[in-house]
Each structure stands twice: as structure tokens, then as C-alpha cells.
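tool_call predict_complex ligand=adenosine-5'-triphosphate
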Amino acid sequence: MTENIVETKNLLSGYGKLKVLFDVNFKARKNDITVVVGPNGAGKTTLLNSIIGLATIHDGSVIFDGQDVTKVPPHKKAKLGIAYLMQMGNVASTLTVEENLRVAGYLMPRSEVNDRIQEILEMFPRLKEFVHRKAGTLSGGERRMLAIGMAMMRKPKVLMLDEMSTDLAPKIVKQVMNKIVELRDQYDLSVILVEQNAKKALEIGDYAYLLVSGTVRYEGNPQELLTHPKFAKLYLGISE
Amino acid sequence: MIEIFTRAIAYSGGIALAAAGITLIYMATGTFNFAHASKVAWGFYIVYAMMSLLGGSPYYYVIPAALFSAFLGFVTYFFVNRYLLKRKADMVTLMMSTLGVDLIFFAFLNVFADYLTEVYKLSARYFVMELKDPIIMRMGATEIRAVPVVSFISVILVTIGIYLFMTRTNFGIAMRTTIENPELAQVLGINPEKIYLAAWLLGGGMAGLSGAFLSLTISGYPSVGMTILVTLFAGSIVGGLDSIIASILGGFLIGMVEQLGTYSLSVALGGWICAYRPIIPMVAMVITLLFFPRGLATIDWKKVLGKLGVKI
Ligand SMILES: Nc1ncnc2c1ncn2[C@@H]1O[C@H](COP(=O)(O)OP(=O)(O)OP(=O)(O)O)[C@@H](O)[C@H]1O
Ligand SMILES: [Mg+2]
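tool_result ok
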């Protein structure tokens, strides 16, 4: 038993020759909600892409549940139990809502898929009206709901959520955040939450990272970051 | 006249199947596949060789022809395309590599034809199998053979089959996801290599099927695939390159235009026109694209039919 479900060691990564992250040591403890915040272009998405295997890793390593998975391709990481809600391109727009949910359950036993789709649709009643519509015709918020639903189809060990609250009404954001806490409490789920909406995320987080220009500028208690005299104002625009 | 028409149907069915294969492989892997030419030609030769050596109806060997060309699809993917996709090669590199593969398959086909000629004394460098196709109907002096019917029914079945596969099976939905967004597909646990391989196998199989039906319609020789490649590409492009069903329709239309157009022009202007036959699908392609720049797939059929007074 290792304490950390996901870990990066001295990670140097980017896209092709481009380097974005420098010497990042990141740890997400089991059953924790680990929050990653930082300004635009800081490398938050790149951190998640490096963990799943969509970025180029120049140096360092990625550890999942005690195993070195640096070179494991994304589809196998999915099989190991990582679900990832990408910031962009997170639904297939030529597929219907139902087909998107179905393909998100690609790794699940067939008998469970239909029940799970129903559960997701209960969670987002708005989607229920559109099950047979192409995802490309949904509004920004509806699309985001679908993407969240897709990330939650399986019962993963780690749920990585990149800017899931973008486009969503505050009421829905609150509801989804509550759902995430509930799922985490219900079973052994660990969550890595990347958020622009730093305040809300830091409030439910157990541990926090502040990324700036590809390096870790702060790690520790989220409350502390939220009230940090310098960082909160400088990078997160939290003033009170 | 009826014979001209039925022959056009048989020919167009074959073209439609092969054009669909080109589109499928292009959609899944971004590779515009020149090697389709020799995969179709191998379809001709599998039917010809097996029927000459083992006897029986040519239709016994349609499935073996499809399987063999599917195997050629596997070879293309496994030894060439796979590595280029991993290196994220651009479209031109992908396309040119298939030209190389085509020449290799073509070389082996020549060896095979010579082998059949030398060892079994067959006239394998040029053959006509139309007469081996059973006659299913006589209308006065006109004989109707089986291949127009079989080819047309196969096109319908393949169309329905592809539609059901793509919309009703998990693997088909996974394939569509990968085609649209490979990164999303991988994150959801889909192995893109499996999808690419499936596209090459299916696309190759359709090329073999096409070759088998065409072998009963037109004469066979090693470079027959290259002769019809222009028509195949025209069909695929007219279909819009982003819908397999549309490429079947595109292939069928281009095939009909080529057959009936060549016939009418040769009646009107004389037989010399037949030498310019490949120009016809090209002209048809240009005209279609002038009106529908993105191919048949993007036409709003409901609107078109509505204008014609048909309600659906
Ligand atoms: N696919 C890509 N190819 C090349 N460069 C990229 C790619 N994605 C991101 N980058 C670059 O990497 C840097 C970090 O981007 P990243 O998406 O990780 O930032 P982020 O912290 O998620 O920002 P945001 O808050 O805007 O989502 C940026 O400078 C960006 O231009
Ligand atoms: Mg980002």
C-alpha cells in the first residue's frame, strides 16, 4: 500500500521539443481532493496530460499506485483506473449524447453500462431531453455536463478534472462539487481538480498546488493558499 | 441496351465497394490509399486462379478474395502505416508510402500471373471471366448474368452492415470516436491501433470483394487496379471523404456515369472515344465538386427531396 495514488518525480515535460513543466514533484494522496491552481498557461493542463500520457515526457517519471507508468500509453492508463475530463475536445461532437456516454463506458462490463447511463442522466436532467441529439449541437454548459457525465461513467480510482466548472451556472457547479465530495466519501476515489475558479476548488480541497510558469510555487494546505498574503492576490485574483 | 445497363450496375457496385474502402481507411488513419489498386487487382486474380485450378462457380471464391485483400490491408498497416502514424507523419508522406506498397503488391501480382502462366499454362496475363458467370434470365436475345444482381445486393448489404456496425456496436462507436478525436478515444480506454487495424482489414476486404465482382464484369490483367484507380478516387472524393455511406453512393454514381457516358459517347462520336474513358469520371467529379464543394455527404438531402416534392 502506497500513500500516494499519483506522483510525478522531477517531471520535465511538454509537447514535442517544447518544454512546459520544469522539475515538477507532484503528489496526489489516496482519497484526497488535490487542487491545482495557477494563471493561464502555467502548465496545469500539461501536468494532467503528462500523467495520462498525452504530453511528451523529457525527463522524470510518473508513478501510479506505486508503479512506474511513465511510458504507459493513455488507453492503458484508463484501464488502470484513471478517468480524465479534458479541458477541450472532451465530447465527440458527431456522436449523440447517448453514444458519448456509451463510449465513455467502453471499458465497463456491458450489463452495467445502461444502468450507469440512467444514473448520469438523473444527475443532469437537462441532458435527458437531448439523449438522441448530436453532442455538437449542445450549448457550452450542456456539453460540459455531458463531459462530466462521461468522466464519471466508470468508477475510476482517480478522477482528473480540468476546468470542469467553465460554462456552468454556479448552481450546477455547486451541485457537481458536492457530488464529487460525495463520491470521494462513498468509495476509494481520489480527485485531482484543476480549476480557474480557484476559490470554490480550494474550499473543498485537501491539498493544493500553485503552478506558475511550469514550476510549483506553493504546495500545502488549501486554506492557507486561499489566505496567502501574496499568492492569493497575485495569481488567483482573490482579494478579501 | 439492357445489357449495357446491367453491366453498368455490376461495374458501379464494384466501384462503390472499393471507394467505400478508400474512404474508411482515409477517415480512420488519414491515409489516402493508393495500394487499393493492387488490392482490387488481387481480388481479380484470387477468383481467377482458384476457379481455374479448383473449378466450380466463381462465386465460391468471392470470400477468399475478400479475405486475401483484407490480409494485404493488414500487411500495409502492420509493416508501413503503423510506424508512420506513430511518428505523426503528414498526409503526403502517408499517401506516398502507399504508392510504394502498391508497387510491391503489383510486383508480386506479376510474379503470380507469370507463375500461373508458366506452371499451369493459364493465360493469366489477360483473361475474361464474364462467360463463367451464370445466366439468370433471358429476354429474347439479351442474356442477363448474375453479377449485376449479386453486386447490387452486396452493395446494399454492405451499406446496411456498415451502418449497423457504426451505430449499434461498441466497437463501431469507438471507431467513430477515434476518427473524430483520437485523444478523447484514448483517454476513454480505446486503443487507437486496434481501430486503425480494423479499418485496414475492412477496407482491404471491401477492395477484394470489389475485385471479385469486377472480375466478372471487365477483363483482368495485372495493372487493372491502376486502370480503375482514377474512378475509385473520383467516387470516394465525390462522396466527400467523410462518410462511408456517401462514398458508396459516390462510387456508384461515378461508375454509372463512366459506363453509360462512354457508351453514349461512343454511339454518338465513334469508338475512338473509348480510349479517353478515364476522363469521364474525372469530369463527373469536377462537375459534382463545383456544385457541392464538399461532396455528397454534405448535401442536405431532406431539403433536396423537399424541393422535389418528396416528403420523408
Ligand atoms: N498541444 C500543445 N502543443 C503545444 N503547446 C501547447 C499545447 N498545449 C499547451 N501548450 C503550451 O503549453 C503551455 C502551458 O499550457 P497549459 O495548457 O498546460 O496551461 P494551463 O495552465 O492549463 O492554462 P489554462 O488555465 O489557460 O488552461 C502554454 O504556453 C501553451 O501554449
Ligand atoms: Mg488548462
